[in-house]
Structures
1.
Amino acid sequence: MARVYSDVNARLGPSWYDYESMRIDGNKPDRYEIVRRIGGGKYSEVFEGIDSFNEETCVIKVLKPVAKKKIKREIKILRNLAAAPMSLVMEYVQNTDWKELHATISETEIKHYLFQLLRALDFVHSRGIIHRDVKPGNIMFDRQRRKLRLIDWGLAEFYHPGTELHIRVASRYYKGPELLVGFKHYDYSLDMWSVGCILASMIFRKEHFFRGRDNEDQLLKILKVLGTEEFGRYLTTYSLYLQAYNQELVQSYPRQPWSRFVTSDNRLNVSPDSIDLLDKLLRYDHQQRLTAAEAQAHSFFNIVRLETPSNPAECLSDSGFYSA
């Protein structure tokens, strides 16, 4: 059971989380004009657009034909997170590409980026929702304005204690160990592992800190850093059995000190506080990871905590929908 917000959906009731019975009433998209394609993936295409009502730049997300249940789930989550949902038309954020950002980001920027991300996640978790795909590609960050938006709610799901969840979620480099060993009773802490991976990438200036070729190799990359001793305890604690075809996964590996990853190129981003925060996020046992609220209280964020706006919902995007 999650250490925090475990009863949110039970308390709010089916009207909050029952997306399958939800009715979708869409609006006409004539107000928006597509300018250019800016991205896309398995479930959607994303375009830059113009809102003809106010001439503002926006982002338009066009959903591909997928299971209606999945579309309803995403829209229900967006409705729950937004104060006034209108369309799958989002604000345009002057995003800095991750390839550039991770290699040039300063310690101050890391603090602003991570703190806003944690505020967004605590807001989402407090409403009984797991994002399940936290990664740099789903985070828009305007460096000049230090403005962050967490996007793409296609894999998000409502959390119910004791309910099995799909493990084929999240992007490989940011998958928590629970997914890689087939543990289906995960919770909000899954998102916190992903935050830890992002922090490691930033302070050590690696595009992806754990970069496996496939899921087994991804787990192997984690074992070679965090060691197999704690991993064995984790499996025992939750009565998990590791079924692996890669024989390297059954070998023993010592835990590596974080200092091993410090170089002359990243030294300025590494501090005792950043290492301590990282160590408390990248834990095999999801019950031992910091929650989003606990992470915000960490001394690493002492400087930025007083500078941050009061409304965490400002750090979310994909705030509504229309149907074409």
2.
Amino acid sequence: MSLTTAQCSNAPDTTTTDAGVAGAGVLLAFVITAGITLILSTYIILGDFRTGAPVTPKIISRKLVSSFSDQQIIEGIGIQAVGLAKMRTMVPYHFFVIWLLALLSTATHLGTLLALVQDYKRDWVLRWLRQGFMFINLALNVLCGVFVLKSVVDGIAPTLPIGCVWVDGADRSGDRNNKALSVVGTIVVIAVTVILFIFATWYLHLRRSAKWAKWVRLIGIILLSAMAVGAAVRVMMVASAFGGDKDVSLRGPSESSWSFGQLLTLLVLILPFISALEIFRGEIGVSAEQVEDDRQPLNGNELKPLNDRYDYQDNPFKAGSKKKTTKAFRSPG
């Protein structure tokens, strides 16, 4: 059912709260996950500039980064899908929060890519799986950004559904203060997201690491951290769960109230730490003597030592890829 002019011409005075996308637990889960992942990714990347660094902490850091990134990208795709599915009822305020959380998700999984790029290069399944999730996240992110941009340009009433941006005759009595700045900022963020995706795709499929690769990773993680900090600060400023300066009147249960669903989003953050503790205690048989940082894939297979010549695994379905498969990807037996 599509929205009609009648539905979009009479904006109500208030709208209902939506703790499922803007609740305190949801927001904190995204911010905490992004923060931990980017900090650990920075630690891993800086380790490339140091020699003789302990191996075990790097192993744990890589496992944590991988786990948190997987959670974040799935949650990012999921929350954007929910927002688009509810565009006939969700107001621009909640949709804007979703878009900011999606930016956090983008910064997180791109930071993970920079930190664990060698693992993805050595396993074509992990590489193309990551590529697929990146593309889905980008497509949803750009689409949500277009909705946000359209709502800013048209200045639709803040209590109307976000889907009304495509309806002629919709109430456009929204706040138009700083409209030019908001439009430029939104366009820049969308463009930067697309550029980062293109660069990440190129870097992910780069067969050999050049001498400048370390510096590219370092500069990239700094830029992604700045992007994440900006998105986190902005979402905290506008979210009603933290007393933000939202431009819409809400009714219903407070988005700052806690429920099992809000608590669950934070409880799942404990799982990667449990896995890290198991690794540290040797419960799953990860040995520091067998695994060197950035020299052993995350899938745990016992492979022969890799060198700079054999650090990229081709897709076996690609024509002629079997001829390019090296001993680096065969079992010792």
3.
Amino acid sequence: MSGLKQELGLAQGVGLLSTSLLGTGVFAVPALAAQLAQYDSLWAWPVLILLVFPIAIGFAALGRHFPSAGGAAHFVGMAFGPHMARVTGWLFLSVIPVGLPAALHIAAGFWQAAFGWSSLNLLLVQLGTLFAIWFLGTRSAGSSANIQTLIAFLVVGLMVAIWWKGDITFSQIPLPKLQDISPLSLFDALAVMFWCFVGLEAFAHLATEFRHPERDFPRALLIGMLVAGAVYWGCTVAVLKFHAWGEGREAAASLPGIVVQLFGQHALWVACIIGYLACFASVNIYTQSFARLVWSQAQLKPKSPLAKLSAQRVPVAALNAVVGSCVLFTLLIYWLNLPLGALIVYANGIFILIYLLCMLAGWRLLKGRSRGMALLGSLLCCVLLAMVGWKSLYALLIFALLWGVLPKPRATLQAE
């Protein structure tokens, strides 16, 4: 038994995953997709869900049959041995230096849009956000789930309000005919839109904290993915209707701009707060997942402080290490004024590589249709790595470095 508190239900799981997938993307990606594919992007979302579906089924089956706080590292370790588990775990943790600080930077940007704050004030917002995430993490996964479920309702409510005030109806949506779709523009949009579904691997770390993981974890994963996809599609419809996209426009400002257009300037702060909360939810689930991964890896040395749980059965020591590291890198990035955009693209390659390793593990561990889905997911991940192009070499080099540097476990005598 993992020792972590099992308290998550189906609704909480859906709230956790949907907010993780929406995150920063819900305010930016619909405008980017519209810029790349115009009205063809309305077909791109259902196509993307169909493409990601095999990967989601693979994660759902792995989480159902092998629930563990180790998440991706645990699945890979069961299939390919303890050394691969450690490599995968550290590969996931290698996102911390750029991924979390970048998301914090984007989250703080909503405060700048609403109140025009200076860079120093935005740094304080980032540090305050980390403190709030740390406080939530010391409580339990249920506390985070309840808050993120509320955030999911706020995001959905914002989209519904835009549709209602903007008088958007399904009969008015100019959905292109299939024969009129440009495959090239659709492919370009899909390359960007895939990042909206980065988050499945983080959700896997919470599988063991469901009250009924074998039943509720796969349902929460699939329902949460469909909810997020529906919200993205609805936001894309609004962006296209109000022409909130194009050259010279900031993608993240598309939905706040629509809100101002429909409800007036005084409503800007409402959209910005919801945007901040969506970012907060994404950073929160990743931080909690990193903490559980660190705790899981520390079980190899049970006397390590990182292997301990608090009285509430929460990995507080591991959480302290993760949040402390994030504070350090946030301050470092602020001081050096690093270009985060390019670094995030490289980090995305790491996520695809982790997906690939998990799908290969699913191909070895699962049976029946789930095994076929894992194999299909593996092929899809290879295609996605090819789409990233030469920038995927960053992830492959990190993987090779970890493989060579991390000590291999000593060979043990086989039982007679």
